[in-house]
Every structure is written in structure tokens, then in C-alpha cells.
Amino acid sequence: MAFRRRAKSHPLFSQEFLIHNHADIGFCLVLIVLIALMFEVTAKTAFLFILPQYNVSVPTADGELVQYHYGLKDLVTILFYIFIAIILHAVVQEYALDKINRRLHLSKVKHSKFNESGQLVAFHLTSLIWCLYVVVTEGYVSNPQSLWENYPHVYLPFQVKFFYLCQLAYWLHALPELYFQKVRKEDIPRQLQCIALYLVHIAGAYLLNLTRLGLILLLLQYLAEFFFHMARLVYFTDENNEKLFNVWAVVFVVTKLFTLTLYILVIGFGLPRVENQALEPEKGNLFSFLFNHILFRMSVLLLVCLFQASVMWRFIHFQLRRWREYWHEQSSRKRAAACAKQQAKPLKRDSGYHENGVVKAENGTSPRTKKLKSP
After folding, report:
1. Torsion of CA 224, 230, 236, 239, to 10 degrees
2. Might you name a Gene Ontology BP term for this protein (predicted)?
3. Which residues, including other chains, have CB under 8 Å from residue 282's CB and lie 6 or more apart?
């Protein structure tokens, strides 16, 4: 009991210490792993944290090609890159966002949203460029049939597997960041829902061997999210500038149409045509076997369509509310301008000038007609 009391009062166990020094703690852990690479005894263990595991030599026409598949050791690699993500999060916050916040003098609510959008703009831009590079170099854009040909795609190139591990690490690191960044209680359910959806979709594509389709869908999703959070940043700096929201609205609709088209193309037409439809779980073709049955295929497509419809409904509701607020603001401005014009108009007065409340003529006499005395 005495040790427990001392532990609670020690600064290492305090909430403030963890909040302000979590990036330093992560940096120390990463540094320990990197130092372990220098010694032969610990190098093999250190490589488990840094490099993707489960490499396999696959024979090809040009020789042997090293590829990868997933396994439990991936969790160790993901843990290491969670600490990397925490460090990068702190660097962006301290050296970019905090300096901008000091100049803008935002309110507490806007300050929290500005930090959230700033972090996501940096992440989405990096992931967008990286994902586009992977998709182009692997030939998934030039040959769309490769999205379902030779399914299941059990073996992955190095850059594809490394990309998925880093994506999982980033969205897992976002969970403790809710505590470290002191996110408001009102915003926690929304952010938890967003993190959970990303983790389910990325992990589902990774574990079900739908990595090629997942890359294209992530590219489209990150493109729309980048424009949205960029529009929010511009709006916080200048509340009269909402042009980027209009750009985001167009990009959002286009990306959702492409997303739905890809789902129908791959799930509805591509995967059912895969030649090897025998159930062999050790080869990872369980999903391909299930898609040979029209009931399962139609159920998945129905769920996808319902999810996309709910996303579009929220988008339409957001746009209608935004337009109502815009027109209400414009009408109130017009009324205020009309009232200002009426107040600025000069009052129509009688000829002459006023003196002690009595209208005087130009020569100083009262313009009123004199009463004639009766004869």
C-alpha cells in the first residue's frame, strides 16, 4: 500500500507528465530499438520491429521475386510504427500547428478543430502521394483487371505490405492521442467512429487479401478527406472564404461514384469469375469461394450500397444546412444594409432654418401668416 501511494504521487505516474512527455517516451523506445540493431545479439529481434516479416521467394519468368504475406509478427511491427506516428504527430503539432494557432488567436472549440484538421491534412497528403506512387508502380491503374485477376492475392510486394502496416499503425496511434491531446468529450464519439471505420476497412482489405482494391479505395477516400480538412483550415483563417468547400463537395461526389462503381465491378463481376473456386483456407481463398455464391455476393453489395447511401445522405444534409445558413446570413446582411441606408437618409425639412424649435425664413422672420385683426 505504501508503494502504491508513492507511485501515484510520483511525477512519472501523473497525467500531466504523460500528456506533455508522451512523444519523448516514444522517442526513447524507438531509439532503444535502433541501438539494438548495432549489436549482433539483439539485431535479429530489432528487425522484427522495423521490417515486415514473412518474406517468401516466389518464382517468376525473370527469376525469383521476394514477396510477403501476413501473420502475427506484424503486430510487433505495427507497435513500433505506432511510436513513430506519435513522434511525428508531436513534431507537426509543435513546429507547425502551435505556431499558427498563436497568430490566429482561435477560440477553444476552433482551436481543437484546427489541430484535428491540421494533423489530418499532413497525414492525408502524405498517404495520398504514397498510395498514388504504389498504385502506379504496381500497375493497378493501367490494368484494372489486376484488381481481381489471380485472386486471392496472398503474396504482397514489399511496398504494399509496408503501406498497410503504416496505415494500421497511424489509425491505432490516434486512439491514445485522444487522451494525450485532451480532446473534448463531445468530439470523442465522432472521432472514435471515424477511427473504427478506417481500421475495419484497412484491416479487412489486408486480412481478406483485397489489398489491391483497398489501395484504390483509400486513394479516393484520402483525396476527398484532404480537400475537406484543407477547406476547414482555410475557413478558420478567413471565415469569409468558403470556396474550397465547394471544391470538396464536387470531389466528394465524384469519389463516391467511383467507389461504388469499383465495388460493383470487382465484387459483382470480377471475383465471381475467378477460376479457382475450390475451398482451400490455407491458400487464403475463403473469400473467393464465398463470392461464388450469388446470395453472399448480393448481400455484400447490398451492405456496401446501404453504407454509401448513408454517407451520401449525411453529405446532402450537411450541404442543405450549410446553404440555409448561408442564405440566412445573406438575408440578414441585406436587412442590415437596408436599415443603415434608411438611417442615413436626410430628413425632409421646411424651407428656412430652425431656431428654438421654430422654423425661421431666410430673412429671419417666421414664415407663418399673420392673423388679421377683425375690422
Report:
1. -70
2. protein insertion into ER membrane
3. none
Burial of 33 (0-12, 13-18, 19+ CB in 10 A): middle
Tens of pLDDT, residues 41-100 = 999 999 999 999 999 887 777 777 889 989 999 999 999 999 999 999 999 988 989 888
- Where do the H-state alpha helices sit in 51-157? 74-92, 98-104, 108-138
Measured over all CA atoms, what is the biggest interatomic distance in the chain, rounded to whole angstroms? Answer: 136
Residues 172/193, Cβ–Cβ less than 8 Å: no
Please work out, in degrees rounded to the nearest 5, the angle formed at the alpha carbon of residue 170 by the alpha carbons of 164 and 176: 145
Q: Is the dihedral of CA 250, 256, 257, 262 positive or negative?
A: positive
Length of the chain: 375
By three-state DSSP, how is residue 66 classified?
strand
Query: CA–CA separation, 367 vs 351, rounded Å?
Result: 9
Q: Please enumerate in sequence order all residues whose Cβ is within 8 A of that of 48, keeping only pairs 6 or more positions apart, or say none.
A: 73, 76, 77
One-letter amino acid at 233 equals L
* Residue 119 to residue 132: CA distance in whole angstroms: 20
217-249 residue pLDDT tens: 999 999 999 999 999 999 888 877 778 888 999
The verdict on whether omega for the bond into residue 152 sits within 30 degrees of 0, i.e. cis, is yes
Helix ranges (H only) for 139-239 are: 158-180, 188-207, 211-237
Per DSSP, 7 falls in state H
3-class DSSP state of 355: strand
Q: Which three cell numbers stand for residue 295?
A: 446470395
